[in-house]
Amino acid sequence: MGITGTRTQLHRDGLDNIFVCAVGRRTFALGDEELPIEEEPGSISAAEAYQRPARAAAALRLEQVTLEAGDALYVPCGCWHEVEAHADQAAPYSCAVNWYFDAELETQVELVTEGET
Fold this sequence. Notes:
The chain has about 120 residues and is mainly β. It has one domain (about 15-100). About 5% of the residues lie in helices and about 35% in strands. It is built from 1 helix and 6 strands. A 3-stranded antiparallel beta sheet has the order 4-1-6, with no helix packed on it. A 3-stranded antiparallel beta sheet has the order 3-2-5, with no helix packed on it. The protein is globular, with a radius of gyration of 19 Å.
């Protein structure tokens, strides 16, 4: 939940994410995981040179997408992204729901067959 102008740092997550905009709007700046971006030591955030406003000098190409209330976006594990909140006429805030999961996790199901009775 955030007011207009609330923004995350440019970062990447260690899990896959389904992001649902519930109220207001959210604008994503998305970059491929292969972008030559250095991380802050011990962090998932990009180094300061890649954050706003210094990012302009790094000449990174990030794609912009804006979600409206009810829209969902899949953000794969490792994808660089930054998110900014925007309120709308219905509410003075923006609210979103995230579901983080491990798409690589394999669930093994063992089928047990009982003998004939």
